[in-house]
Amino acid sequence: MKAILGLLAIIVLAQAGFVQKYPLNYSNKRNIMSIMTEVESKLQTRNPLDTIKGILNNFKSEVAQEQGIHDEVYNAQKTECDSEIEYRSKEVQEANSILTSANGILKTAKIIKGKTSATLDATEEILNTATRHIDMINSARKEDTQSYNRAAVSFNDAINAIDDSIDLATALAKGQISLAQVAELSTKLLKSALATKLIQEFRQPMAALAAITQEEEAGAAERLVQLLQTLRTAVETAWTDYTTSNQQGLQQFMGQKDLYTATQERLDKAKSRLVAKLETTEGVISVQTAVAQAATNRRSRNQNLLEDANDLCHSFEVEYEAVTTGRRQELVLINELERLATRRAAEQQI
């Protein structure tokens, strides 16, 4: 009986721990010590064995009923645990999938951003070069225009000087001109020769004009007029050639300007596209960075909850098994009490 009491003490302690952690509400909690005392009392007063077995069977029924309720609680909790673990596991997996995808997109977007930035820098450099070339072409054309205008004045002055010289030669033949006038016209012709850069063409008429002041030959004035008329034709031809050359230069200028302007417009459009692409890529990076951070937080949160669920469910299962084992031991003890009671009852009948 003392051995039975020792086993009973262990079972009672186990039961107390279970009730404290899982307070299942039993209004009439069994007391195995009372049962043992009652069985002992019944044996001493020689009560029928069936009465004693009824007491023990009632105890067994209480144990079975309690185990049944505990099984229901355990099964409900296990279902909840399995569901929670499955849900949290899926949440972790989904967060990992989102994080992997976001990181992949981020990596690609950063590569695209780097290449786009480099292309944009190169495009801006080429665009700046094209702009400088256009500025240089405009500047050169401005200088050419100014030079053309100066040349127009010079050639016009030269034609006027030649016409004046023709008039002078005509008047000279009539003796109606002074040496001072001849000197003045000689100076004008010299300036025109230098301004138009037709020195070779002006040389002979100027020499004839200078010589005519030293000669009184009758045909000298007429020869001078012919030379001056030939010079006038040469100056007009030179001006025509100069104008044609200027027109050709203008066409070449317009062609170069159109080429660089078209290049500038194309580069401007390319720059706009690159800027838009860069802004879009930066937007993708910003969004995916936020997505990756959210996925990281989601994974961390659900990983912690998953670990908590695993720990809690494992603890619940361990304690369920421990308490169930305690009940089995109670039944073993009751069966032993029944065996002893049966033997004592048999001994009392001898």
Automatic annotation (TrEMBL):
**Keyword vocabulary terms for this entry:** Signal
Which residues constitute the signal peptide according to the record? 1-16
Identify this protein by name. Answer: Trichocyst matrix protein
